[in-house]
Amino acid sequence: MKVGDAIAEIMRREGIEVLTGYPVNHMIEHCAAIDIRPVMVRQERIGLHMADAISRVTSARKLGAFCMQHGPGAENAYGGVAQCFGESVPVLVLPMGYPRRIAHVPPNYNSTIQMKGITKSTEAIMSAAEVPNIMRRAFARLRNGRGGPVVVEIPTDMFQEEMPENWSYTPVLAVRSAPDPADVKRAAEMLRNAKRPVIYAGTGIHWAKAWPQLRELAEMLAAPVTTSLGGKSSFPEDHPLALGSGGLAMPHPVRKFLDDADVIFGVGCSFTETNFGIKMPAQTKDGGPKYIHATLDPDHLDKDIRCDIGLLGDAQLVLQALIDELRGMAARPHAPVQAAIEALRAPWLAKWAEKRDSNDAPLNPYRVLRDLWRTVDPDQTIITHDAGSPRDQLSPFWISRTPLSYLGWGKTTQLGYGLGLAMGAKLAAPDKLCINVWGDAAIGFTGMDFETAVRERIPILSILLNNFSMAIELKIMALSTEKFRTTDISGNYAEMARAFGGYGERVLTPDQIVPAIQRGIEQTKNGTPALLEFITSKETQVSRF
User: Fold this and answer.
1) What is the pTM of this model?
2) How many angstroms separate the CA atoms of 496 and 493, rounded?
3) Is there a contact between 64 and 49 (Cβ–Cβ < 8 Å)?
């Protein structure tokens, strides 16, 4: 058996069903030979984003995998690997490498060196006999601890090497860790005594499938819950204790409750400081909230926020341990907390009603997104956003009620990410309506890969908000725009979608928003990817507090 055949067989034993990529990489043929489906993209970053979504939507029970050629293919892939790293997503990355004799000769791009800072590990296959060991290490890192991409580079001259006749491979262990019981007792006591506790839930809730435990603890404590963008949909946002999710934009209750909290319990989160996340209240010598930080990664403790108690372990095990420790405590009334949340939410929504109910043309993007939520079945939908305005206009108002119905992100915000996420989500959950919301800037980065959705029969619904401008840059590029039109963008993207063989429709008036969405959904049910291009105003206001 050749090295390439052995790697493919190991991937199959580890449950990988799809390999996204771009040639030339011989793993495409080796995987196709044993019915691991290859999906070819138009550029490398999209393939990594698709693999990323496969891991996300399955809570890493099925892993995404991506391969690319050596040299320019690996160079182009760097951004997609970095996105996985920033969002802690486990993806197997299989770059082809230069032949071993010149693998370390500049200027040849060596993935094991160049990607070391944006991966959990990198390793090159230099010996056929070591293939099982190298792949075992890779999958062990993918299945354990905090998520992240893992690189296994395969030099071009390794593929035809013969494996030892007696080689063997057994799928790796996936284990969970739980926090120190003494720390659990301390945390439970702090939560029991808290007057104004708030739970901040991150992406780790999704990886651990800790949704029931998160809800049970919140209800036990009568504690309001907010989430990071990555954690959005981990707690039902129609629940009376839900504050909504927070990024650069957020519902008003999020900011108010965090600022007034005496204890903030972050679970499954990193508390990473970012312009695209919630800014946590500071602790000062005069006061501020106490922090309990539950994370899988010890490197996150005290990284950006000084915590008073640290709980290291799987989010589900952490939450269950706290529930068990708190069981029997006197029931806390929910009504006062719910009333306080609603007293903030109602006027906030009223403030935004003018935009969300707008009958203007060009369309207000908030009206488009309002009608989108009302038209789809949110519980049978997986939606994601792109960077910039689509993220900030969607996340505060989209009510996610079921786990993993929203793929949020934001620590690094590459334009064009959402298209690949939607396609990967559809591959992982073919029964769901999978939507990406993007703008005319983002489609300029990855729009060609709408053709991939058509060619590979991945029927997503793509919602494009087209204002013919880099609107959020207008204020900081006023002079260059006036003199040189630097923020102007143009294109007819509905026509582009039709040219690729998909369904494309341009929508100009409010009365056509819902009918167009209905037509787009029907196209996806018939197996055709649909792109709906809504011509919108240059809306720049977002819900910030």
Assistant:
1) 0.96
2) 5
3) no
CA 429 to each of CA 362, 398, 424: distance values in angstroms, whole numbers, following the listed order: 34, 20, 9
Specify the length of the chain in residues. 545
Query: In which element (H, E) is residue 124 found?
Result: strand 121-124
Q: Provide the b/e sequence for 251-278 (b: ≥16 CB within 10 Å).
A: bbbbbbbbeebebbbbbbbbbbebebbb
Could you read off the pLDDT of 125-157 as tens digits, one per residue?
Answer: 999 999 999 999 999 999 999 999 999 999 999
Q: How does DSSP assign 311-340, residue by residue?
A: EES-HHHHHHHHHHHHTTPPPPPSHHHHHH
C-alpha dihedral sign at 316, 318, 319, 321: positive
259/491 Cα distance (integer angstroms): 44
Give CA–CA dist 69/261, Å, rounded: 51
Banded pLDDT at 347 (limits 50, 70, 90): very high
How close are the terminal C-alpha atoms of the chain, in Å? 61
Sign of CA dihedral 278, 279, 284, 288: negative
Q: Which amino acid is at 295?
A: T
> pLDDT tens, 239-284?
999 999 999 999 999 999 999 999 999 999 999 999 889 999 988 7
Give the chain's count of helices (H) and strands (E). 20, 18
How far apart are the C-alpha atoms of 442 and 489, rounded to whole Å?
11
